[in-house]
Structures are given as C-alpha cells and as structure tokens.
Design goal:
Shape: elongated
Low-confidence stretches: none
Mean pLDDT: 91
Largest sheet: none
Order of helices and strands: HHHHHHH
Helix content: over 70%
Radius of gyration: 17 Å
Number of strands: 0
Distance between the termini: 57 Å
Number of helices: 7
C-alpha cells in the first residue's frame, strides 16, 4: 500500500477532533510520556528488572529487559522499512515513521511480560486495559493511524511470547524456587 492509511484509519481519524478536549489531551500527553520517552523505554524496564531482582527473580528480570529491548528493536526496524507517514496534525513530537506504534508495542510487551510472570486474571485485565489505553492515546494525539497501533500490539505480544519461549525453562525453575521459599 506504499505506506498509505487504510479506510478504517481515515474513518477513525475523522471521528477524532483535531483539537482534543482538555481531558483527552492531558490523558494523551501523560500516556505519551509514560509510554515512549525515556520513561517507557528505559525507566520502566529497568525499574521492573530491579524490582524482580529484589524479589530474587533474576531470570524474570532478564526476560523483561530482553523482551523490552527486542520489541523496541523490531519496531525501529519495521519503521525504517515501511516509512509510513503519520496523520496530519500530530500533537506531540515524534520520530520518523508511523507504522508500527512503538508506544503501543512497548505497552503490549510489558503486559505480556507481566502475564507470563504473574499469570492471574487481574494481571491479564490490567495489561489489556493498559495496552488499549496506550493505543487510544496514540490516535487521540494524531500520532498514529489506528492500524499502526494494531501493528504495535501484534509486535509487542509476539515479541513478549517469543522471548518468553526462550526463557521458559529458566522461568519455570525460578518460579519453583520462589514457591519453595514461600513454603
């Protein structure tokens, strides 16, 4: 498609006001900061890894860091290949290339890592909500087409699961050790 948006992209973008209401704008700006600046790319994965190390879960910490790094790398590689233009009227500073959404990929990766490490329904629900809110925020700010956010979700989930598969044996052994320490 030569980087052109789909009909659903244009339709969704046309539904959104060019200037979001203040609550939507603040929501979008907060999510922008948390999801993709140094906070989302470095601080959250490092803080998560440190917390997991404190909990004596070094393999889980490694999984989190590797999944976050691979997700960011895959997003940047695909952005360079696709080189899709962003919607008009972007309300935040962005890098080049709209597809896929790095913020949304990052959110989805974090959600998958959380579910793999803490497999509970409330973690699944929180991760899904976090990812969907991030995707919404990217379109509210006109930083991405809706299909960019879907691509970001697919990349984040895919990377999170592939990296989890690489760490499965170590994570299971570590989970068993944690259970034995509790008993």
């Amino acid at each position: 498609r030569s980087g052109q948006p789909f009909a659903i992209d244009r339709g969704w973008n046309d539904l959104l006001p060019a200037e979001p209401v203040p609550v939507s704008l603040v929501f979008g700006l907060v999510m922008n900061r948390v999801g993709g600046t140094w906070v989302g790319v470095f601080a959250i994965p490092i803080a998560g890894a440190v917390a997991l190390m404190i909990l004596r879960r070094p393999w889980a910490a490694g999984y989190f860091v590797v999944a976050s790094a691979v997700s960011a790398l895959v997003v940047q590689l695909i952005k360079g290949i696709v080189d899709r233009a962003r919607p008009e009227g972007v309300l935040v500073v962005t890098d080049a290339g709209s597809y896929p959404s790095g913020h949304t990929a990052n959110a989805a990766t974090i959600a998958v890592v959380a579910v793999v490490l803490f497999p509970r329904l409330r973690v699944v629900a929180a991760g899904a909500l976090w990812t969907l809110l991030m995707a919404l925020s990217r379109t509210v700010l006109h930083a991405h087409w809706v299909s960019d956010t879907v691509g970001g979700i697919l990349i984040g989930v895919g990377v999170g699961l592939v990296v989890a598969a690489m760490f499965t044996e170590q994570l299971e052994r570590e989970r068993g050790a944690v259970r034995r320490r509790r008993d």
